[in-house]
Structure formats: structure tokens, C-alpha cells
Amino acid sequence: MREVHGYSRVSRVDLRPSQSARLRIDRSDGTPLFDFRLTTGAEGFRLVEDEPAPRAERYVHAIGDSYTMGWGVDARASYPARLAELVGPGLGVLNLGVDGFGAIGATAKSRALADRYPPSAAVYLFSPNDPEDDAQAWAVSHRTMPSHVLHEAFHALRRSSYVAGIPFALRYGLQFRAGPARPGTSGIKPGTIQTGGPIEFFDPASLLLPEPAALPPPQADAPTFAALLEYREFLKHRGARLVVLVLSNQASSLQAYRFCKEQGIEAQLFDVAPSMRIPDEGHFNAAGNGAVAALVARLLQAVPIEPGR
Q1: Is 11 part of a structural domain of the chain?
Q2: Which residue range forms the structural domain that includes residue 214?
Q3: How far apart, in whole angstroms, are the C-alpha atoms of residue 57 and residue 88?
């Protein structure tokens, strides 16, 4: 895992360029919880194995954390890759998702690549832990230069020494020995498949959650929301559209949804069905990634859709 991840002075963590590693965690009975390959290109974002970065006149920047990246499934089954199949060859789709990103890392990565890959739209998939990740990223960005150097040296050590990785291996072991993941607040209990399939006869409206009767007020000085506002202005100057997909109806998600509505940012509140998550882990499986791709494709086509449940 450390081969493809590195320390970032901006976002705390990022993907390292031109790397490829197989990531696997087994259950106690020997069956894989997940088993997938993570490959990055020269510019440090996830690519489909044995395929170059997309080339087009305009691009969709798919930004966010591990849900955007497609944690737990191969790159071809990730939602940005499935979205590329739906939008056709005239519009490139970049998978800029990185596990551990909040809005700070997600928007910074998109901005850094915008000249080379000019966006016509950006889709930010907000997940409930993004505010926590952004708080950590903000703290990292305010470290002193000596502190940055020490952390970079430690990350380099982790890549070359199994001993340095023991605390992290123990953390993963304890996390998964605790038992199955709890259902989300929407009552979801994960299920899984590991291969992609055709996106046919799927109604994207079935992913949308009903409009809540009341929404909690967002934290005014949250780094997540400050990054999102700066990014909206950045895209606006480039004539690009911003769409925010807000995952689940947890408190932090409802705050983000309210913030977007108050700021005039296009946003949708959504979740996925039980059969669309990796069991005991919670990320989208291939079916879940395909469903999200279908939803994003409809939104990019500016087709109004209403919640199907």
C-alpha cells in the first residue's frame, strides 16, 4: 500500500506517480475482503491498467476520496471508468479520487491538472468523513518546514521497511477483527460483487434520497466548505460546471448538502442499495460504482431527475 501512497504537504496523503501494487486483505477464513490492483500514471492519478491517460478536448474531473477512486475494485470497475463508457469518446474522464482526501486534497489535485486536462465539469463525491480528513489536511499544511521533512523521511522509511509498517498493519487487523461493518444511517448493510457489468435498465433516481424536512446548519469556518467555495470560483472562471454528490444522510452529509444549497452549488443527496457495497467493509462494489456512474451521466446531461424512493 505504501508503494502507491505518499506524504503530501497540501493534502496529507496523495498517490505517487507511476506506481502499481496489488492490495488484498483476507478474512479469517481465507477469502478476500477485497483484492484489487491500484495503478497510477505519471501525473499521480489512478488509471485503468495497460491504458494511457485519456486524451480529449475537454474533461470531467471526478474528484473525491476512496469512493471516487474505486477502493476495493479494479480500475475498470470504478465509477469514473464506467462513466467514461457512458459519455463516449468525445469527453475524457479523469479519476482523481484518492483515499484519505477531503475537499482540500480533491480540489487541489483537480486545479493542478486543469491546464493539461481542461475540465468542462467536475464531480465532487462528498463522503461523511471528508470534514475530518480536511481538518487533518489543514493541520498538515500548516506544519513547519522541518516537520514536513521529517514526515517525508518517515514515509520513505515505510516504503522500504516492513518494521515501520507494523503499527499500520496492526490497526487494519484490529479494525477488521472487530466484525462486520455497521449499516449506515440509511439502514444499508453491505453486499458485494467484484466484476463490472452492463449498466442497463437502471434508474438513477433510485439512488437519490428524499429531501430532508430539516437540515443541520453547516460549520461556518469548516475547511471543507472554504475549499469548495474557492474551487467553485476556479471552475467558474474556466466556464466549467460543478456537481456535488453528497453520500448518505449522516449529520456531516446533511450539513454539506445544506451548505451547497445555500451557496447555489448544484448538489444531490444519495446513497446506494445494500447489494452495492463490499460486505464487512462498506465501499461500493462494481455494481455500486456502475450505479453511481449512471447517476452522474444523467446529471451531466442536465436531465432533471427526482428521488425514486
Answers
A1: no
A2: 51-142+188-300
A3: 13
30-61: per-residue pLDDT in tens?
888 889 999 999 999 999 998 999 999 999 99
What is the pLDDT, as a whole number, of residue 305?
62
Structure confidence by residue, pLDDT tens digits, 225-268:
999 999 999 999 999 999 999 999 999 999 999 999 999 999 99
Residue reference for cell 521533512: 149
What letter represents residue 153's amino acid? Answer: A
Residue 131's CATH number: 3.40.50.1110
Three-state SS sequence of the chain: CCCCEEEECCCEEEECCCCEEEEEEECCCCCEEEEEEEEECCCCCECCCCCCCCCCCEEEEEEECHHHHCCCCCHHHCHHHHHHHHHCCCEEEEECCCCCCCHHHHHHHHHHHCCCCCEEEEEEEECCCHHHHHHHHHHHHCCCHHHHHHHHHHHHHHHHCCHHHHHHHHHHHHHHHCCCCCCCCCCCCCCCCCCCCCCCCCCHHHHECCCCCCCCCCCCCCHHHHHHHHHHHHHHHCCCEEEEEEECCCHHHHHHHHHHHHHCCEEEEECCCHHHECCCCCCECHHHHHHHHHHHHHHHCCCCCCCCC
Nearest-5° angle of CA 285, CA 286, CA 288? 65
Does residue 308 form part of some domain? no
Residue 39 forms part of a structural domain: no
Number of domains in the chain: 1
Question: Looking at the whole model, is its pTM more than 0.85?
Answer: yes
Has residue 102 been placed in a domain?
yes
The pLDDT value recorded for residue 189 is: 34
Asked whether residue 214 carries a pLDDT value surpassing 60, the answer given is: yes
